[in-house]
Write a structure and sequence with these properties.
Layout (H helix, E strand, L loop, with lengths): L3 E6 L2 H4 L4 H14 L9 E5 L4 E6 L11 H20 L12 E4 L2 E4 L7 E4 L2 E4 L8 H6 L4 H17 L5 H9 L3 H10 L3
Antiparallel strand pairs: 1-3, 2-3, 4-5, 6-7
Helix pairs in contact: 3-5, 5-6, 5-7
């Protein structure tokens, strides 16, 4: 019997009123297209009159810290290849971090797909990303890009494969952000 994880977004004020509706629908179209890369669990999106529901097949993830670094390195290479394909197709997750990555029999995958990366909430513009991993240029330009994904992924990979003693958030704040472009390229190049 298949269990379904449901994450409901009651966003009638955002999804069905301009200017947000086209952004959300375009993002969902991209999400559907990148399913072929397997970076999310098997997913299905249902758009109703007043709600949006993402159904994802439930997985039984392994505890990431229980995976030895040498095995972590091997499974990360495949994940990076798949996520780069999604990036090439224009997809940005916007919140890649340790909490949103899991490992099951199929390797590493992502959770926490959001219908919007930028919204106007209570009259204020907001970027929907975990702040420590938000690229400073994205913050300044008020648009989440692949750069934010690269920062989150680099911090995760540093912890998962290279340095289990330094939590990703501390690595991000003390090491990566001061030299963001150099450090993300350096880390990601180890897996290519």
């Amino acid at each position: 019997k298949e269990k379904i994880f449901k994450e409901g977004f009651f966003i009638k004020s955002l999804l069905y009123k301009e200017p947000h509706s086209n952004k959300a629908l375009k993002r969902f179209n991209t999400f559907s297209q990148i399913q072929k890369y397997g970076i999310f669990p098997e997913s299905h999106i249902e758009v109703g009159n007043k709600s949006l529901v993402i159904k994802q097949k439930e997985v039984s993830p392994k505890k990431l810290s229980s995976i030895p670094p040498n095995k972590a390195f091997a499974i990360s290479k495949d994940f990076i290849f798949r996520i780069q394909q999604a990036w090439d197709d224009g997809f940005v997750h916007g919140d890649i971090n340790r909490r949103n990555i899991f490992c099951d029999a199929n390797g590493l995958s992502l959770y926490d797909f959001e219908p919007y990366l930028e919204i106007i909430q209570n009259g204020r513009f907001c970027l929907l990303a975990t702040k420590p991993y938000l690229c400073p240029n994205d913050f300044n330009n008020k648009k989440i890009t692949k750069s934010t994904d690269e920062i989150g992924l680099s911090c995760f990979l540093n912890w998962f494969c290279l340095d289990r003693k330094t939590p990703p958030i501390k690595y991000c704040q003390k090491t990566l952000l001061p030299k963001k472009e150099v450090m993300t390229k350096e880390i990601l190049s180890k897996f290519l």
